[in-house]
Structure formats: C-alpha cells, structure tokens
Amino acid sequence: MLSWHSLELVSCRRLQTLWAGYGYIYELTVRATNDEVATELRGIYGDKRPNPEKGEELFPLILKYIAPPRTNPGSEDEGHLRKLLSYGVEQYFYSSVAPLLEEDTAVSHCIATTLESDGKPSAEKLRGLTATIMTDLRPNFPIAGEKRSELNETQVYAALDWLSNFHRTSRRLLSENLQDYLRPPLEEAERRRNGDSSSKKLWLNGGYTYLATRRKEYDALAQDEDSEWSVLCKPINPGNQLIFEMAADYLTPRGREYETLIHGDVKSENLFTTKSGDKVAFYDFQYVGLGLGVCDLAKLFTCSVPLELLIEKGRKIPHELPMTAGEEKLLKYYYSKLTNDFKDAEGRKLEYDWDLFIRHWDTALVDWLRFQASWGFWGNTEWLEARVRYIVKDFVWRDWLRENLGLGR
C-alpha cells in the first residue's frame, strides 16, 4: 500500500490492540521516494517531522489494521456486526469525507486504504482485509487526551471549537438520499444478505448508543425494578407513550435541516491536543453518521468536562437540577460557533433557533442517560441524573416532544 504512493517502510511498531481484539494500530516510519510526495508530507507536518534539520525524508504514519475474530457466517451477534461495519465506515470517512472538511477541523490525512486496491500491485493479497494508512496526529498534537479522565478548561473550549466546526461544515456534505447510509447492524446485515449493497457510506444514525441498536440493554433496564430509570421505559399518561422511546424516536435522523454529521464517540480518549491545549484533533471515526450535534455534546459534557465547569465549585448537586450558568455558557459558546455561516449543501443559510437547540439538548441528555442507565454509569453521572430528573418533569418539554412526534399534547 505504501508503494502505491511512492513511500517505503523504514520501521514499524505496534502501538495497541483494538477493542475486543479486532485488530491493531501500528506506528510506521516511512521514506518518500519522490519529491512530490515528500513536499506533500512536509506541508502536513511542517517542521514537526523526525529529524527535519538533517534533511532526511522520514515521516511518521499510522496503520489501522482490522483482523476480526472468526465467526460462522449468519451467526454473528449485533456487537460483532456493529464493529465490522464501523471499521468500513471509518475507512470511508478518512478516504472520502475528511479531505472535504475545513482546515480548522483537524483530522488525520488518509494516505492509502484497501478500498483503492483494485488494479494495484499485490492487490490479491489484500482481498478481504480492511486497512487504512493515515498521517500521525501526534507531531502537531502531542498531548493525548487519554492520559487524563477529563479535559482542562482550555481543552474543553478547543473541543467545542472542533465540534462546532465539524458539525457546521459537514452539514454541507450530506447526501439527501438516506438510502446512502448504513442502517442499524442487524438490519444492515439482513439488507446485504438480500443483495442490497446500496448503503456504502456512513451510519444513518451516528453513534453506537441509539435505541435501535441497544434493545437488549433497554429491555433489561425496563425489567430492572431496582433502577429508578426503569419507570421511563413504561407508559405515561396522557397517551401511554414511553419517555425514553419518544426521546429516541425524535433523535432518529430523518433528513431535517439541523441534522449534520456527528462524531459518535466524543470523549477525551479520542483526541489529541496541542501543548497549550488551545487546539484539538479528534480520531476514531467508526461511528460517524447523521444526528444532532448535541448528541456529541451530551457525551462530552458527561465524560470529559470538569464538573466545576458545569456547576459552581463546592455546590452540592440537588436531586433535580435545571440548567446552570456554567452549562449554559458552554452551550452558548458552541451554539454561536455552530450557527455562524451554518449552510446546507446548496449554500442556503440554515436557521437554528436557540430555544429549539435547547429542546434538542434536553432530549439528547435524556437519551444519553437511557444508554448509561442500561449499560453502566461513568463520568459526571450525578450531574446527568439530576439534569434528567428535572427535564422529564418539565411538562413543557413533554408537550413539545409529543407535538413534534405527531402525538398531540
């Protein structure tokens, strides 16, 4: 794969094993074999490449190699299918979406993928494999977010900068044909068994926590009498709707103008920052797909934002918590960046009212709590639970949700 792009391998080192043993991440050092490729890589790395003062044409790259465990065809469980499909999504993202993002949305540059192997030297050896070679973020973003359980304030705002840029600019790249996107894993696998391979791109529903792909966990939560949240899995009056299911239904992408691409797994472990922390670059795009940007924020706020940025330091979190000044400050920062030049694929400016944005935010928190309650809590869970207790008792929010699902008030 390197030879396709006038590169040759100098060294290779395994960095880590992927989740559940589905493959490996390797660190490569390569040499450019012609001036054109060397110039392109110099432009990406600047003076951050290894030994630039010696004039050596050495550059760091990353190889993501997928080697899933063997299974019997047709017997794969949902989790296995989700992982397999997600690696194809990530490969498509790096090869076809990332090059179209604005420069302020820092991501790795794709060098080569097995998607382009047809007609290339040794292509037959790559048949059936999923591998992506990309630039290494670490020379320009040397601080790994995974080294800390939460970000500092500067890094939080840098993450909001990145997310608002990504959500805003990727909105212009969306296909209006929802058939272009992957369905939930079991449904997608069935479609492919039936010969329908039309969906070859990104997830129809970004992320891995949405209800359609977490029914087993949800059903277990509904039966868990020890959980205070099982009540939201049961019908309420009037109308006998289920709050968790209404929230999930509303967040399901259906081509609305304020839907965009979301990262799908936003947390400190999936980003690098500059030394000063004023810029970040995200990676791990296995679950990128359609959604509301607030769904990315819900996980970020719960898992990576220091609690003192959400609620006054030293204040005891009440049982039910309305939006605090700290939370609102972060949301307004993101919102102002998102709505500045927010346009669709035709270049038309999109209007996204603040009040509607907050309704979406509340709904995303409810849905994110549904996943945590069924899977396991981590992060700022006391804050999250207090916020959701307040939201679900807000009859204005309930009426808005029913009305927007066509269920009446």
Describe, in plain words, how this protein is organized in 3D.
- The chain contains twelve helices and twelve strands.
- The protein has helices at residues 35-45, 78-97, 123-126, 153-170, 185-193, 215-222, 243-251, 293-303, 325-338, 354-375, 381-392, 395-404; strands spanning 7-17, 23-32, 58-66, 110-113, 130-135, 143-144, 235-236, 241-242, 260-262, 271-273, 280-282, 289-291.
- The strands form four sheets. A five-stranded antiparallel sheet has the order 1-2-3-5-4. Strands 6-10-11 form a three-stranded antiparallel sheet. Strands 7-8 form a two-stranded antiparallel sheet.
- A hairpin with a 4-residue loop joins β7 and β8.
- α4 (153-170) packs parallel to α9 (325-338).
- The longest helix has 22 residues, at 354-375.
- The model has no long low-confidence stretch (mean pLDDT 91).
Query: How many domains in all?
Result: 2
Number of helices: 12
Number of strands: 12
Outline: globular
Query: How would a textbook summarize the main sheet?
Result: 5 strands, antiparallel
What topology, given as strand order, has the largest sheet?
Answer: 1-2-3-5-4
Rg calc: 22 Å
CATH topology of the largest domain: Aminoglycoside 3'-phosphotransferase, Chain: A, domain 2
- Identify the CATH architecture of the largest domain: Alpha-Beta Complex
Mean pLDDT: 91
Structural class: alpha+beta
- Which series of helices and strands comes N to C? EEHEHEHEEHHHEEHEEEEHHHHH
Strand content: 5-15%
CATH class of the largest domain: Alpha Beta
- Low-pLDDT parts are none
In helices, the fraction of residues equals 25-40%
Termini gap: 58 Å
